[in-house]
């Protein structure tokens, strides 16, 4: 729209000014039909000003040269050429812009050279100064644009460098944590698993109580499971890993090594869950059973996995003392208010995937954890 307004406004200016100028310059060639066509063409040349300013300059400068050669009255018909020259230089096309400036000065200078009359020479000099006066601000505008572009480029490069540096530091920290887990924690858990296996065999040979054998077997299974999950964590921390995170497919193994009888009930048709939701389901069950073993004094737990059309619900019930009984969960209340790091971390995991977690006393004086996750 701005280009259209510029073309129309310039056409009116050059045609009207040239028509009026003929009255003060009777020796000039009268403005005929070709003259009107040239003036309109000069204005139309500005239609390329924004996309191809060098094309606009070529058209407008050529029309101005023809108007000068035909002897039309001096008016504003060179204005489109000056506008196009300014835009070309300002856009960074210096060679084309200064070539146009030289052309605009050279054409009248060549016409005056055979007959260098003082008035004509003065006119050429004034015209040359006018062209240079227009070209110099164009150079300033070009330099400002180039400076701004360079500043923006350097700012972008600096931001990219900061991001790369932050990523590098994060990667180094992840590798450091991975090394610590592998060298210290993994080794310790491996020793626990090894000695638990030895203890199980020793108790069996000695004919020890079955409770001790069962407890040692739970320690052995849990330590092996901890090693497997630690490998998954190391795989996440180290680049290039293909170790998949745990999910609902590994729930049976988790329940078998829970340390107390745990039943699993599945309601609805099983279906693949998004990886993030699948992992949260596993972690909710894991943390709920850990709390049951630590705090509830329970003898049994039940995990219910319900598949809904647009969600999945995981529910963990135990037969312990509940939230208010002695020995019950100190981390939750029937109203769902959370205390402690375990349930707080569980709630944060559930919220991260857009789900909702509720905790509190179950219907039979046990403790209940329910997480509903969109899936």
Main traits of this protein?
alpha+beta; Heat Shock Protein 90; five-stranded mixed sheet; 10 helices; 5 strands; 63% helix
Tell me what you see in this structure:
The model is unreliable at 324-340 (pLDDT under 50). The chain has helices spanning 2-21, 33-44, 53-70, 79-90, 94-112, 118-206, 210-237, 251-256, 275-296, 341-352, and strands at residues 262-267, 301-307, 311-318, 356-361, 367-374. Among the domains are: 2-114, no CATH class; 245-374, Heat Shock Protein 90 (2-Layer Sandwich). It is of the alpha+beta class. The chain has a five-stranded mixed beta sheet with strand order 1-2-3-5-4.
Share of β-strand residues: 5-15%
Give the helices and strands as they follow along the chain: HHHHHHHHEHEEHEE
The CATH architecture classification of the domain at 245-374 is 2-Layer Sandwich
The structure class reads alpha+beta
The first-level CATH class of the domain at 245-374 is given as: Alpha Beta
Query: How many beta-strand elements?
Result: 5
Main sheet summary:
5 strands, mixed
Query: What is the mean pLDDT?
Result: 83
Adjacency order of strands in the biggest sheet: 1-2-3-5-4
Continuous helix count: 10
Low-pLDDT regions: 324-340
Instruction: Using the coordinates shown, work out and report the CATH topology of the domain at 245-374.
Output: Heat Shock Protein 90
Specify Rg, calculated over alpha carbons: 43 Å
In CATH terms, the superfamily of the domain at 245-374 is Histidine kinase-like ATPase, C-terminal domain
Helix content: 55-70%
Give the CA-based shape. Answer: rod-shaped
Intertermini distance = 49 Å
């Amino acid at each position: 729209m701005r280009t259209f307004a510029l073309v129309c406004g310039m056409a009116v200016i050059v045609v009207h000014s040239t028509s009026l100028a003929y009255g003060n310059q009777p020796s000039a060639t009268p403005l005929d039909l070709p003259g009107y066509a040239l003036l309109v063409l000069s204005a139309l040349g500005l239609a390329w000003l924004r996309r191809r300013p060098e094309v606009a300059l070529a058209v407008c400068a050529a029309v101005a040269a023809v108007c000068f050669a035909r002897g039309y009255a001096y008016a504003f018909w060179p204005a489109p050429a000056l506008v196009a020259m300014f835009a070309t230089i300002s856009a960074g096309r210096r060679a084309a812009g200064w070539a146009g400036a030289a052309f605009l000065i050279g054409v009248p200078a060549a016409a005056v050279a055979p007959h260098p009359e003082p008035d004509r020479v003065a006119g050429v000099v004034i015209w040359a100064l006018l062209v240079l006066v227009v070209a110099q601000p164009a150079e300033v505008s070009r330099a400002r644009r180039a400076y701004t572009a360079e500043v923006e480029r350097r700012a972008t490069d600096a931001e990219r460098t900061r991001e790369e540096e932050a990523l590098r530091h994060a990667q180094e920290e992840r590798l450091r944590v991975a090394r610590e887990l592998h060298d210290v924690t993994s080794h310790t858990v491996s020793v626990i698993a090894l000695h638990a296996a030895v203890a199980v065999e020793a108790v069996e040979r000695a004919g020890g109580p079955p409770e001790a054998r069962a407890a040692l077997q739970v320690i052995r299974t849990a330590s092996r499971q901890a090693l497997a999950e630690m490998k998954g964590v190391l795989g996440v921390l180290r680049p290039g890993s293909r170790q998949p995170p745990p999910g609902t497919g590994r729930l049976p193994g988790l329940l078998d090594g829970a340390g107390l009888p745990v039943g699993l009930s599945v309601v609805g048709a099983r279906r693949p869950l998004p990886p993030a939701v699948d992992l949260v389901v596993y972690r909710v069950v894991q943390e709920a059973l850990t709390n049951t073993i630590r705090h509830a004094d329970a003898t049994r737990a039940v995990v219910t996995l319900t598949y809904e059309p647009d969600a999945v619900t995981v529910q963990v019930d135990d037969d312990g003392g509940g939230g208010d009984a002695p020995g019950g969960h100190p981390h939750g209340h029937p109203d769902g208010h959370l205390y402690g790091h375990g349930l707080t971390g569980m709630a944060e995991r559930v919220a991260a995937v857009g789900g909702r977690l509720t905790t509190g006393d179950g219907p039979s004086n046990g403790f209940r954890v329910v997480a509903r996750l969109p899936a």
